[in-house]
Amino acid sequence: MAAMIRAYGSLLRPPTLLAPIIGATFFGWLGLERIALDVRILAGAWVMATANAASNVVNQAFDVEIDRLAKPHRPIPSGRVSRDEAIFFGVVLYGLASTVAFVLDTTYGLLVQLILLFTWAYSVPPVRLRSRLLWSNLAIATPRGGRGLLASYWLTAHALTPVAWTAAVVFGLYILGGNTSKDFPDAEADRAYGVRNFVTVYGPEKAWDLMHGISMAALLALAVAVLSGLVPRTAGLALVALPIEWALWRWGKRTGRGPWAAFYGLYSLTAALYALGLLL
């Protein structure tokens, strides 16, 4: 039983759930216009984490052949969880996230449905956006960077202001570039199974430049929004990420390494600082 629990827990990929929890919490506070213990925010953070977990599980179920080459230790290729069991588990998680979202608020529920739709289309044939150049990045950037923050803001504000739309565009663009970091370790297996992404199509060096170029463009777009008065100047606190992004780009060029953990960490930090700058 303990081994089964560990296997199913591993399917969730817990480290990747921190970013949606942080985003949902800080943007729930931003919609509330104060930092407070609020049941809606706690529930919204659970919904976003569960939606992300569902996406992770279903992705592994449909990536099993790629994982046999790149990540044979994962629960499905290692035989600890069957593909059908993983799909069923993923569908249950999708259902739970969807149900709780609608219980919280109808509009919030609809926004979450769009997020779930994109995450399903990312992995599952015949659409399987994961295999399509640029669409694979968009399929992650739209729910996790754009709609996820909009939904979390709506849950407590019941409105979508320039502050929320700016965040959706900036962080959606940031993730559009940054999520390429996950593709570097899997490049050989992805190429063998016809997956087209920045790394397999353009090669690691150019993909690295594209990834950081897009992410830095997102932060520069935030600078423009601050300087133009579209959002309050205090939102510029998030721009401390710009020199960090530049340093990561230069470091990766020198070492040839592209750690996905650095991308997730910097995204979480930047989103939190954007919200904090507007709250404090």
- Morphology call: globular
What percentage of the residues does DSSP assign to strands (E)?
Answer: under 5%
In the predicted model, the low-confidence regions spanning at least 5 consecutive residues are: none
* Succession of helices and strands: HHHHHHHHHHHHH
Mean pLDDT: 91
Number of contiguous helices: 13
Indicate the radius of gyration in whole angstroms.
18 Å
The N- and C-terminal alpha carbons lie at a distance of 47 Å
* Subunit organisation of the chains: single chain
Please give the number of β-strands: 0
Structural class: mainly alpha
Largest sheet: none
Helix content: over 70%
Features:
mainly alpha; 0% strand; 74% helix; 280 residues; 13 helices
Question: How is the topology of this model organized?
Answer:
Blueprint lengths: L1 H11 L5 H15 L6 H24 L1 H7 L12 H22 L1 H18 L11 H23 L4 H17 L8 H6 L5 H5 L1 H24 L13 H15 L4 H20 L1
Helix pairs in contact: 2-3, 2-7, 2-13, 3-5, 3-6, 3-7, 5-6, 6-7, 7-8, 8-11, 8-13, 11-12, 12-13
Structural features, described:
This protein is mostly helical and 280 residues long. Helix content is 74%, strand content 0%. It has helices spanning 2-12, 18-32, 39-62, 64-70, 83-104, 106-123, 135-157, 162-178, 187-192, 198-202, 204-227, 241-255, 260-279.
